[in-house]
Amino acid sequence: MITLNGLQFQEYISEKELLHAIDEVAVAINRDFKGKQPVFLVVLNGAYKFATELLSRFEGDCEIEFIKMSSYDGTASTGQVQTHIPLEADLEEREVVVIEDIVDSGNTIEKITQMMVTAGVNKYRIASLFFKPGSYTKEYKIHYVGLEIPSDFIVGYGLDYNGLGRNLNAIYKLKTTKMTNLVLFGPPGAGKGTQASFLKEKYNLIHISTGDVFRYNIKNATELGTLAKSYIDKGQLVPDTVTIDMLSAEVDKTPDANGFIFDGFPRTTAQAEALDALLEEKGTQVAAMIALEVDDEILVKRLLERGKTSGRKDDADEAVIRNRIKVYYDETAILKGYYQKQDKYYGVDGVGEINEITTRLSSVIDKL
Ligand code: IMP
Ligand code: MG
């Protein structure tokens, strides 16, 4: 396993397999371009290594030209193809073999195809070391393919993740760990804290309560805590970016965890999207949003009971309690929709004995 820019990758395709695939592409190209003196057009940066190996196997005379393009940022396609070094050579009436590292969405190939037409080539062929048929959205034929692979993000052998990994002699795949990341919801008085501590034990999860994370960072005057405090002191809301950075740091403390229980976050769609992005960067995702469902009247009764013994002021006044419950439903309605769209919403009956409720929660988690 290797780490590049903070992401983990595991070895996926060995150098031996790559060289074997390149041998086969070379055989086909030697057969098709025998005595033809083609121009090999190498697409930088990714294809440099494939081009070196492939061209060292070409048996005839040839010319070599370069263009430089990019369409990826991080581990995802931007959908925009940028040309950094344009085509300078005159390719009119020439036979051209485009050498690409990988064909993914096909956006780059589309742009190159247009370039070939504009250049007035006699004929062009595309050779790509990798092809992801599952991501391909175009119709252009890829004439020579080294290896067809699933749509996972890969690095090595010329391919990079944010600039790193091109020099590796094998292909590595982004490590996607199957984590059980839960977003736990429940109205005040639903027993969320109690259930979170049981689930944490049972599934060996890390409980991230946003409130606790804030208090910890502020108390220890971390950089982010100090920043958050500066907003709080001015009576302003802490910006989502600060909160998400704190959560990110919290997740990074235990990268090998079985998963996390997010408690108190997200509260808005923007935060839910930020959480998705954060987890995706770490090669994982939200597995489920679980909401404890308890009838309002039962909640009011429970909280008033609790108020009598705990002395918590916000548990003593029925109007305050009802308002807190209302705020909860106003906030969660949007998030419920957000996770329902992804088939990740699970409502769990929160009325009954504590262990009964834990059993209901477990039956949801066990199926994730
Ligand atoms: P397309 O335009 O979506 O077909 O993407 C082609 C370009 O995206 C390639 O030339 C690479 O630069 C980059 N790319 C696509 N998939 C990967 C990958 O898995 N790892 C690294 N770069 C990739
Ligand atoms: Mg490329």
Automatic annotation (TrEMBL):
<feature type="binding site">
    <location>
        <position position="352"/>
    </location>
    <ligand>
        <name>ATP</name>
    </ligand>
</feature>
<feature type="region of interest" description="NMP">
    <location>
        <begin position="209"/>
        <end position="238"/>
    </location>
</feature>
<feature type="binding site">
    <location>
        <position position="271"/>
    </location>
    <ligand>
        <name>AMP</name>
    </ligand>
</feature>
<dbReference type="InterPro" id="IPR033690">
    <property type="entry name" value="Adenylat_kinase_CS"/>
</dbReference>
<dbReference type="InterPro" id="IPR029057">
    <property type="entry name" value="PRTase-like"/>
</dbReference>
<dbReference type="GO" id="GO:0005524">
    <property type="term" value="F:ATP binding"/>
</dbReference>
<protein>
    <recommendedName>
        <fullName>Adenylate kinase</fullName>
        <ecNumber>2.7.4.3</ecNumber>
    </recommendedName>
</protein>
<dbReference type="GO" id="GO:0044209">
    <property type="term" value="P:AMP salvage"/>
</dbReference>
<dbReference type="Pfam" id="PF00156">
    <property type="entry name" value="Pribosyltran"/>
</dbReference>
<comment type="similarity">
    <text>Belongs to the adenylate kinase family.</text>
</comment>
<keyword id="KW-0808">Transferase</keyword>
<feature type="binding site">
    <location>
        <position position="324"/>
    </location>
    <ligand>
        <name>AMP</name>
    </ligand>
</feature>
<keyword id="KW-0067">ATP-binding</keyword>
<comment type="function">
    <text>Catalyzes the reversible transfer of the terminal phosphate group between ATP and AMP. Plays an important role in cellular energy homeostasis and in adenine nucleotide metabolism.</text>
</comment>
<comment type="subunit">
    <text>Monomer.</text>
</comment>
<keyword id="KW-0545">Nucleotide biosynthesis</keyword>
<keyword id="KW-0418">Kinase</keyword>
<feature type="binding site">
    <location>
        <begin position="264"/>
        <end position="267"/>
    </location>
    <ligand>
        <name>AMP</name>
    </ligand>
</feature>
<dbReference type="GO" id="GO:0004017">
    <property type="term" value="F:AMP kinase activity"/>
</dbReference>
<feature type="binding site">
    <location>
        <position position="210"/>
    </location>
    <ligand>
        <name>AMP</name>
    </ligand>
</feature>
<feature type="domain" description="Phosphoribosyltransferase">
    <location>
        <begin position="16"/>
        <end position="161"/>
    </location>
</feature>
<feature type="binding site">
    <location>
        <position position="306"/>
    </location>
    <ligand>
        <name>ATP</name>
    </ligand>
</feature>
<dbReference type="InterPro" id="IPR000836">
    <property type="entry name" value="PRTase_dom"/>
</dbReference>
<feature type="binding site">
    <location>
        <position position="215"/>
    </location>
    <ligand>
        <name>AMP</name>
    </ligand>
</feature>
<dbReference type="InterPro" id="IPR000850">
    <property type="entry name" value="Adenylat/UMP-CMP_kin"/>
</dbReference>
<dbReference type="InterPro" id="IPR027417">
    <property type="entry name" value="P-loop_NTPase"/>
</dbReference>
<dbReference type="GO" id="GO:0005737">
    <property type="term" value="C:cytoplasm"/>
</dbReference>
<feature type="binding site">
    <location>
        <begin position="236"/>
        <end position="238"/>
    </location>
    <ligand>
        <name>AMP</name>
    </ligand>
</feature>
<keyword id="KW-0963">Cytoplasm</keyword>
<feature type="binding site">
    <location>
        <position position="312"/>
    </location>
    <ligand>
        <name>AMP</name>
    </ligand>
</feature>
<comment type="pathway">
    <text>Purine metabolism; AMP biosynthesis via salvage pathway; AMP from ADP: step 1/1.</text>
</comment>
<keyword id="KW-0547">Nucleotide-binding</keyword>
<feature type="binding site">
    <location>
        <begin position="189"/>
        <end position="194"/>
    </location>
    <ligand>
        <name>ATP</name>
    </ligand>
</feature>
<dbReference type="Pfam" id="PF00406">
    <property type="entry name" value="ADK"/>
</dbReference>
